[in-house]
Amino acid sequence: MNTRFDLVLGAGGIGSGVLWQLDDNRILDRDESRGAKLSEARDYCKQHIILHYLSQVMGEEANIYAIGKTGDDDAGRRLRSEMRDAGIKMDFVEEVAGGITMQSVCIQYPDFHVCNLTSSNSVNGEVDAGYILQCLRRITDPVGSRTVVVAVPEVPLQARIALLEYGKKLGAFCAASVLYDEAVDFVNQNGLSLCDLLVVNETEAKALLGKDLKGENLAHEFTLVPDLRGCMVAITCGELGAFTIDAGIVVHTPALPVKVASTAGAGDAFTAGLICGLHLGLPFHTVSSQHCRIGFGSAVELAAAFAAKSVECVHTICPDINRSFVKGVINAL
């Protein structure tokens, strides 16, 4: 099979966390103390999740580099070891003496909605544009059309903009996501024009547009954004599936029916599934009727399978998503 990418350059969070499971769906009040179950689930940050899946699927076809920092603490040492074991190259992940590796607390309600607190004083905050460019200057692999750049949250936005600008200048395929609180700054810093693939959830999509729309109506508004012409966009909507936009065409992909263990990490799995699908030569999405329903054998369908498998797992990195899993999904499409 002819594959699309042979180099991956990632920037984003590297860290771990714990999951607390609440007993009821009543929203936690700011002055409230409440009991919760401490789960054994293993939680990871966005860059780690996405690059793990890319490494498991691309294997030796691509060199996959993480760019970031960890502390020299136990968490940092464990994470670096796990990422190396997964096949991710760690040449550009600095161990900061005395630094704090990013930690997060995920709070999950019984209906599987989650919220997160992430340490703002971790060394991820030191991953600035200067550090990104310093690392990029050390790369000996040729960067070009067979390179995919992955710029995701949990490091400062300016660092990710620097990576996207670098990739765009050299003809790489640039993939990004953005948090709700970063959306306005991302737009103001011309982040949209740097993307070849943008993956956001419905709340983040609303913030990017500054419009309170939902589902298909929200997706159609993205077809009108000049900076996104030529960019593939995916808007994930949880149990409602995803809306994808390419060349002005909006396609809805339903979520696969599965038993949910945890929704944490599903969006990152979806992003990785999209990139893996494109790498393997699948079309982004296919249109089977004038109503723009999903067809068969697309990167979006593979992404939906990644997300479904992810939510069946209590951990944010599902060990069952690998090359064998992908082969099974593609054969079934």
Task: Summarize the SSE layout with pairings.
Layout: E1 7-11, E2 15-21, E3 37-38, E4 43-44, H1 46-58, E5 63-71, H2 74-85, E6 89-96, E7 102-108, E8 114-118, H3 129-137, E9 147-151, H4 157-169, E10 173-176, H5 183-188, E11 197-201, H6 202-209, H7 215-222, E12 232-236, E13 242-246, E14 249-253, H8 266-279, H9 299-311, H10 323-332
Parallel strand pairs: 1-5, 1-9, 2-7, 5-6, 9-10, 10-11, 11-12
Antiparallel strand pairs: 2-3, 2-4, 7-8, 12-13, 13-14
The parts where pLDDT drops under 50 for at least 5 residues are: 289-295
Give the CA-based shape: globular
Instruction: Compute the number of structural domains.
Output: 1
CATH secondary-structure class: Alpha Beta
What is the residue-averaged pLDDT?
93
CATH homolog superfamily: Ribokinase
Total strands: the figure is: 14
State the end-to-end distance: 17 Å
- CATH A-level architecture: 3-Layer(aba) Sandwich
CATH fold naming: UDP-N-acetylmuramoyl-L-alanine:D-glutamate ligase
Alpha-carbon Rg, integer: 19 Å
Specify the oligomeric state: single chain
Helical element count? 10
Biggest sheet character? 9 strands, mixed
Secondary-structure element order, N to C: EEEEHEHEEEHEHEHEHHEEEHHH
Structure classification: alpha/beta
